[in-house]
Write a structure and sequence with these properties.
It is built from six helices and 13 strands. Strands 2, 3, 6, 7, 8, 10 and 11 form a seven-stranded mixed β-sheet that branches. A two-stranded parallel ribbon has the order 1-13. Strand 10 and strand 11 form a beta hairpin. The C terminus is likely disordered.
Length: about 200
């Protein structure tokens, strides 16, 4: 059964609770906000081992340049589609090369990643200064039997209990596999059960 758990609730349930910052894109005031969307070109590799850019260097350069433009334009809402953003680019975000402005949110569809690699990255991200990486726990059986997850990654700022700014990377996993002639996702994708909306943050528009 699919469950809907609001982002605010996810952050409050952490051992060290976090408080959301209001998002400019959800501010009901008359002032406009800036959105940048990515519609990539190129060949997608999709098989039982991975789904992502067939040309990995091109995919990294494309998404890295996209986030550089988002930072330059101080975008309030940044969106990249499913299986698009390489995790090498996410590593650059954590390292501080690209960071969303406070009050902005980046919604990044990431390339596939294996459960083990995801856990390894999670440990490294958690060790970064003023950064937390959160996700629903993977099913142990699926983590062994399936090859990868399909991740929607929210990147935004929150406050900790001391009022310090914390960069949050909140991963939401795909809940229903797509069908194709080879049943790639049906046989290779780890699925989870939680959808995390932002409906309560900062009011509606």
């Amino acid at each position: 059964m699919i469950r809907i758990v609001e982002v605010e609730q996810v952050l409050q349930q952490q051992a060290s609770p976090l408080k959301l910052m209001s998002l400019q894109a959800l501010n009901p005031a008359r002032e406009p906000y800036r959105t940048i969307l990515l519609q990539p070109t190129g060949v997608i590799e999709a098989n039982e081992l991975r789904i992502g850019h067939a040309d990995r260097e091109h995919g990294h350069a494309l998404c890295s340049g996209f986030l550089d433009s988002a930072v330059h334009h101080h975008a309030d809402l940044v969106v990249a589609p499913e299986y698009c953003v390489p995790w090498t680019v996410v590593e650059e975000i954590v390292a501080g090369r690209y960071r969303p402005p406070q009050g902005a949110i980046w919604v990044l569809g990431c390339e596939s990643i294996s459960p083990r690699d995801l856990q390894d990255l999670g440990h490294r991200f958690q060790a970064a200064d003023h950064c937390v990486f959160l996700h629903e726990q993977l099913d142990p059986r699926q983590a062994v039997q399936r090859r990868y997850v399909d991740t929607l990654l929210y990147v935004f700022w929150a406050h900790d209990q001391n009022g310090q700014s914390v960069l949050v990377l909140l991963a939401q996993f795909k809940t229903v596999a797509c069908r194709d002639s080879l049943d790639i996702e049906q046989t290779s994708l780890c699925l989870r059960k939680i959808i995390m909306p932002y409906s309560s943050v900062g009011g509606g528009r």
